[in-house]
Every structure is written in C-alpha cells, then in structure tokens.
Amino acid sequence: MSDDTWLVVGLGNPGPQYAGNRHNVGAMVIDHLAERAGARLRTHKAGASAESIRLGPPPGVRAIIAAPHSYMNLSGGPTKGLASFFSVPPERTIVLHDELDIPF
Fold first, then answer.
1. How confident is the model over 2-32, as pLDDT tens digits?
2. What's the 3-state SS for 20-60?
3. Residues 6+ apart with CB under 8 A from 94
4. Number of other residues whose CB lies within 10 A of the CB of residue 87
5. Is the peptide bond before 78 cis (omega within 30 degrees of 0)?
6. Maximum pairwise Cα distance, the chain
7. DSSP 3-state assignment of 7?
8. Residues annotated as part of the active site
9. Across the beta sheet with 61-68, what order do the strands follow?
C-alpha cells in the first residue's frame, strides 16, 4: 500500500448475542462504511473481515476498513496483523470503540 493508506478498525464482540449492542459500535461503523462505499468485507488471514475503500470526497483517501473476528480484548493481534500486511504505520491507524473513558 502507499504511504497515504489508513487502517480503520472497528471493535466489537462476535456472535448474535452481541448484535446491536453498544459495545459493538466500532464494528457497526465499519459495516456502515462498507455499505456506503458499496463494498463487501472479506475474510482476511489476520483474523478479521476487511476491504479497501476510499473515504471522503473524490478522489478520497484509501482506507482499509476492518472488523476483527475476535473479542474486543483480543483485537490487538488481528489489528497488528492487518497493519503489517498492508504496511500501515500506527500513526495512520484509527480504532473505533465505545470505551470513551480511557484517555487518548
């Protein structure tokens, strides 16, 4: 990937019992972004569903949007795997989650 690629990871917990739960807001945002872009998330070997899209007004910035298949507290491995595979540095990684009480 090029130097201007972003990684946007939405956290949540897998399984139907968590669907629509506030704790899954990150994964829900990823689903929404994929839908708006007309993209379909595909299973990636890093343990996540991911797709490359463009965000923002045309031509937009390239972004890899992803949702790990793991529980939130185990999402670091898939996120690191995606960042490594797509050569996205930490400063171009955005993690969407519901834990607003944790300092930036």
1. 579 999 999 999 999 988 888 899 999 999 9
2. CCHHHHHHHHHHHHHHHHCCCCEEECCCEEEEEEEECCCCC
3. 6, 7, 8, 9
4. 12
5. no
6. 38
7. strand
8. 23
9. 42-44, 48-55, 61-68, 6-10, 93-96
